[in-house]
Amino acid sequence: MIKNKSLTVEETFNLAVKNQTENNLGVAEKLYIEVLEINPRNSGAYNNLGTIFQKNGNYLKAKINYQKAIEIIPNDLNANYNLGKVLYELGETEKAINSYKKVIEINPTYFNAHYNLGLIYRELKQIQKSLLHYRKAFQINPSDPDLLNNLGKIYKDLKEYRIAINFFKKVLKIDPNHVFAINNILHLFAIIEFEKDDPLIKELILFLYKKNNVDHNNLIGNAKSILFLNFDNKQEIINSKETLLKNNFVKLLLKEELFHLMLQKSVITDIFCEKLLTKLRSEIIFFFDKNDNINLKDYFDFIMSLAEQCWLNEYIHTKSLEEIDKINRLKDKIENNTDIDELEVAILACYIPLNYSKIISDKLSRYKSTNNIFNDLIKMQIKEPLKEIELKKIIKSLNIINNSISKKVKNQYEEHPYPRWRYTHKYIPRNFFSALNSEINPNEIQYNNKFVNPKILIAGCGTGKHLIATQRFLNAKILGVDLSLTSLSYAKRKTEELGHKNIEFLQADILHLSEINRKFDIIESAGTLHHMKDPVKGLKILLELLEPHGFLRLGLYSHIGRKHIIATKKLATTKKIKNTVNDIKIFREYIINENKDLLLKKILTNKDFYTTTGIKDLLFHVQEHCFTIPQISEILKSLNLEFLGFNLIDLKLKEKYSKYFPQDKKQVSLDNWHQFETENPDTFSGMYQFWLKKIL
User: Fold this and answer.
1) Considering only CA atoms, which of 164, 59, 132, 196 is closest in space to residue 474?
2) Omega before 454 cis (within 30°)?
3) CB 676 within 8 A of CB 661
4) What is the mean pLDDT of residues 462-486?
5) Is the omega angle on the peptide bond into residue 442 within 30 degrees of 0, that is, cis?
6) Mean pLDDT score, 572-588
7) DSSP 3-state of 456
8) Domains along the chain?
9) For 475, which of 53, 176, 335, 599 is 20 to 30 Å away at the CA?
10) In a 3-state reduction of DSSP, which class is residue 62?
11) Dmax of the chain from CA atoms?
12) pLDDT value at position 650?
């Protein structure tokens, strides 16, 4: 008998199982321990204890309990399988393989064992072995969405892109919200340009544009290829004196659902499309107050989509003095009219944000349309900014920001919070080391039980996209810090909309962060330190907040990768361009239409060139440093930091590096990376992003 005298061992075990099923894990754990005190040979209790510890992220305790279960019953199928899972999480890959092979010996048709072996062998780049086990799993269960997704990944590795896409499509037919399949397709679309007339690609792109848990900017390249298939004479269309609204190609384009979704959900990073939209917008405002054979109501849906695009790019498109005059008169008309004319409002929103006028904002905040896109426009331009104003009131500030450079940077982001975004990827939480190792592969860091519930600081969280990405860490508690209250309120709104409750916000200067008197297991600061007067001083302060043996992820500008940006900034200085929105737009038009320098033309490939905030951050930042890898190496040596690896999105670069330096199997030689970047100057065109470990 046990502590509860009325229950037998068997009854207590069953009660433990019941509590475990109901997620009362603490109660279940105590009951299993009671069972084992009476019967230390109860393998089921050890196995179930292991699953509890594993669920809580305590992999070492889980491993011990699974091993005890197997000692009692060597052919315990569940215990061997569970041991394989936890060994994999602990980075003991070969042992995990042996556990799964043991499972298959016991039961050759055990689906999950084949599936997990396929997973491991793919990570080890043993593609044929991976494919063998995935095929065996497929024979057992051909409709498992995770398996189909991983088969797609295998064929992507083999550059059989058509086969890969078909597997991903099968996944989405079974589970339209399958996060991994969606992200895999997005990644594929970001690196591969498919045939223009491919109906499968169009179908998938349209499907993904309708979802709100993806970063639609990754779809732009292939979406443009599809939409502009018949635009063979792009320049002629733009230069033609013919009314675009009467052009057959354009009329077909304006009816395309994909075109509307692209305008609503992603910033258009294309010069032809920008010129097309600018000209169409001009025609709309001129036709609006004319008696002409063009009925603008026929283009209402497009006008609303255009208004959303203009909001996203922050009205980067140029406008003439005549347009400004017409739009001012339209604004006055809307302000003075009692009734709401939705077409008038939509046209206005193509030129100025609706919250620019308090009178219009107040009217529309109470207005409910029968048109969902119009309601979305009101939500985007009026209700969301109002929400951010309210959120500003509840975000805490550490102290007054009094450093002169910090104040300048703060003011820039108060006026232009960066970046403005609508949607982003959904992340599936993983234990920290599993997530870390996927980012620094082929280097691999051994699991440490200390990081089961990681405390994370995001120093310079901006508008929150970085905070969302941090959801990839299981059981994380996150503090987002930024100079700009406007950026923080944007971030708080977005994270609340997505249901993230593990994030707190603080307005603060990194220079004063030691005053919070807290320690963190992980600190991420990407794109922040290089905007400080003394980046090394800022880094030292962050290190004071980092626990011994904690991890740090940094993002710093590359001098080599930004040569074209540096050259463009110098040209702006030469032409005496002032740091105003109007001057910036004038300079931008010069780059688009008059500049012939190929190095400077390269700026057109940068997504930040296509938004007002983006170009201000890109070319007109008030404070900026660029680094070389040797400089970074010296900083790391001086601060006793271990370099763990670059976080590169394009895995082809890592493959290329391994061919250059096969002896550097962990890819952690900064000397080698400097040589590699020198010969491949676009490697870090965005910035250096890399992981470090605090040695002390």
Assistant:
1) 59
2) no
3) yes
4) 96
5) yes
6) 93
7) strand
8) 233-391 (no CATH), 404-560+626-694 (3.40.50.150), 563-619 (no CATH)
9) 176
10) helix
11) 94
12) 79
